[in-house]
Design brief:
The structure is a homodimer.
Chain A: H1 3-14, E1 19-20, H2 21-27, H3 33-45, E2 49-52, E3 60-63, H4 65-68, E4 72-77, E5 83-87, H5 90-107, E6 110-121
The structure holds a DNA duplex.
DNA sequence: CTTTCTGCAAACGATTTGCAGCAGC
DNA sequence: GCTGCTGCAAATCGTTTGCAGAAAG
C-alpha cells in the first residue's frame, strides 16, 4: 500500500457518492492521471474499490461496502448524470435476498452481489 | 421509421438478452457500423430502446419494456461479461415500489425507472 | 540490486462525426 | 429542389500501456 493508493482510499472515504477520475484529480491535485487509473485497477482487484459504470462519460469509483459497512444503492439522474448514494432499506433487502435464492436455484447462476439503481431526475433537474 | 431501424428493432425483439453492436452486426450482416450507432441513438431518444452499460467493453441494447411488456432484470457474469435476462418477481417489485416512494419523498429525487442487476458467476463460469 | 511505483507521452479502441452520395417527398 | 438516411473514413476521447527514472525493501 503506497502513499498514492492511501490517498485514493482517503478521497473515496470522504465522498458521499461515487467519484469520477476527473473529480478525484480535482480533489487531490498533483496525482498523475495514469497512476490513478492504474492504482484504481489494483484496488479494484484487491476488492477495496468498486467501479461503477453509468451512461455518463466517466466511470465512477467508490469504496467496497465490506470496508465501509454501509450498504447503499444509487440514484442516477438521467438528465445531468449525477449519482447519489441512498441507504438500502431492510425490507427491500429481505425481499431481494428471497428473490435471489429463487433465481440462483432455478437458473444455475451464482449471485455474489447486487446493484439497484433508481433512474430519474435529481432535485435540481426536475 | 426506415428499413434500417426496423431491422434493429427486429433483431432486438428476437433476442433474449441485451445485445452489443458487434452481436447485432453479426446477426444482421450488411449494416454499416456507424448507421447502427446512429440509429440506436435515435431509437433510444424515442424511448424505443434502452442502452445498458456494464463493465464489459461494449454497451448493450434492448427494447424498452413499454413495448415488450416484459419487465425483467439482469444477471451479469463478472467473469465473462455475459448478460442474461431474468423475469422480475412480483414480491420484489412490490417491496421496491414501497422503498422508492419513501426515497422520492425524503430526497426530492423523482424516480422514473429502476435497474436491478445480480452480479456473479454464470452457469458456465462457476 | 531487484522489485514495484510513478509520470510522461504514445497507443488503443469503442463511439462519434464530417462529408458526399442517395432515397423520398 | 429540399430533407433526412446511409456508409465510408477520419476524428474524438476515456482509458490503457511502454518506457525510463525514482522510490521501496
Amino acid at each position: 500500500m503506497t502513499g498514492n493508493r492511501a490517498a485514493l482510499v482517503d478521497v473515496l472515504r470522504d465522498a458521499t457518492r461515487p467519484l469520477t477520475i476527473p473529480e478525484i484529480l480535482h480533489i487531490r491535485g498533483g496525482l498523475a492521471q495514469s497512476s490513478v487509473y492504474r492504482n484504481l485497477v489494483v484496488l479494484e482487484q484487491a476488492g477495496v474499490v468498486h467501479r461503477i459504470v453509468t451512461n455518463d462519460e466517466h466511470a465512477r469509483f467508490e469504496l467496497a461496502e465490506d470496508l465501509t459497512g454501509n450498504h447503499h444503492h444509487h440514484l442516477v439522474c438521467s438528465e445531468c448524470g449525477a449519482v447519489e448514494d441512498v441507504p438500502a432499506s431492510a425490507g427491500l433487502e429481505a425481499s431481494l435476498h428471497a428473490a435471489v435464492s429463487e433465481i440462483d436455484r432455478t437458473t444455475g447462476f451464482t449471485t455474489e452481489r447486487h446493484r439497484i439503481d433508481l433512474v430519474g431526475r435529481c432535485r435540481t433537474c426536475s
